Amino acid sequence: MHLSADHIKSLHKYELRILQSIEFLMGRFSWVPEEELVRNTRLSANEVHFRISKLMEKGMVKFSQVPYPGYCLVFNGYDTLAIAHLVKKGIISALGSCIGEGKESRVYEALGTGPVILKLHRIGQRSFQTVRKGRNYLPEKQHCPWVIASHFSAEQEYMALCTLQNHVRVPTPLIMNRNVIAMTYITGDRLSECTLDNPKEVLEEIFLQLQAAYKRGFIHGDLSEYNVMFDGEQIWIIDWPQWVSPDHENAEEILDHDLETITKFFSRRYRISSDMKDVKKLVTGC
Ligand SMILES: Nc1ncnc2c1ncn2[C@@H]1O[C@H](COP(=O)(O)OP(=O)(O)OP(=O)(O)O)[C@@H](O)[C@H]1O
Ligand SMILES: [Mg+2]
């Protein structure tokens, strides 16, 4: 079920309190018993029961009978907590439609002082194994690994956007909460959808942006025609959660893959050939 602005707008303050309480109690329980929620929220048992049924209708909470009756947040509930925080902070006033749904995220338009993008990181059980690689501190057994993994993925992307701001053309990060990043809206299309008049210049500009990112310790890690946008004049590089630093053990391989993917696209679409050695030298400076 997709999260809609109506679902969030119609959220009663007690429903929000219950979501917050489930999130907190999930640190202690795999499935949060109803009586614990009553205790923690200080609402009546009837109120909690009624409000939980509303949250389940909205697809924000899940119930399980085994190993004992209890409730757990699902992505919609976690996203809602983050978005409610952004609303409270005045970063957004309205949630628009979902404009992108990838394997590991959902992207929504929203309204703040201007148009804003909300990227909801959603690392599910399957992709969690990939995220875990090389990150030893992620616990082996955690009730809800997706909460940690999704929060971590958002943190990674937010860190890249903050550091690269003013040096590389990336969206400006506005705020991050839980698994959600608010960033400026780029007007334009992905390279996969544009027909460029000056593809050679655009490709050269991409290399220069990658060079600037490399200098600051960032290799994109998932570069493709889908993660570069063009606004008619300039390019923007988006989608940074999987970046690695140049001293990562697989940095060279990852950079090669980024460069090959983007140069192959320009070769296929625009018949522009690139010498990989020269390109790599330009980007890394060695
Ligand atoms: N700042 C932005 N401004 C405008 N559109 C954006 C912005 N960020 C993301 N998008 C749109 O949302 C889509 C998905 O975003 P992104 O690439 O960051 O996520 P993703 O998890 O990789 O999703 P996918 O698997 O579809 O690539 C982009 O291809 C782009 O169309
Ligand atoms: Mg992408």
From TrEMBL:
It catalyses: L-seryl-[protein] + ATP = O-phospho-L-seryl-[protein] + ADP + H(+); L-threonyl-[protein] + ATP = O-phospho-L-threonyl-[protein] + ADP + H(+). The keyword Zinc-finger does not apply. Residues 64-285 form the RIO kinase domain. Its cofactor is Mg(2+). GO terms for cellular component: cytosol; preribosome, small subunit precursor. Keywords: ATP-binding, Kinase, Magnesium, Metal-binding, Nucleotide-binding, Serine/threonine-protein kinase, Transferase. InterPro entries: Kinase-like_dom_sf, Rio2, RIO2_wHTH_N, RIO_dom, RIO_kinase, WH-like_DNA-bd_sf, WH_DNA-bd_sf. It comes from the Archaea. The keyword Translocase does not apply. One of its GO terms (biological process) is maturation of SSU-rRNA. Its EC number is 2.7.11.1. One of its GO terms (molecular function) is protein serine/threonine kinase activity. Belongs to the protein kinase superfamily. RIO-type Ser/Thr kinase family. This is non-specific serine/threonine protein kinase. It comes from Methanospirillum purgamenti.
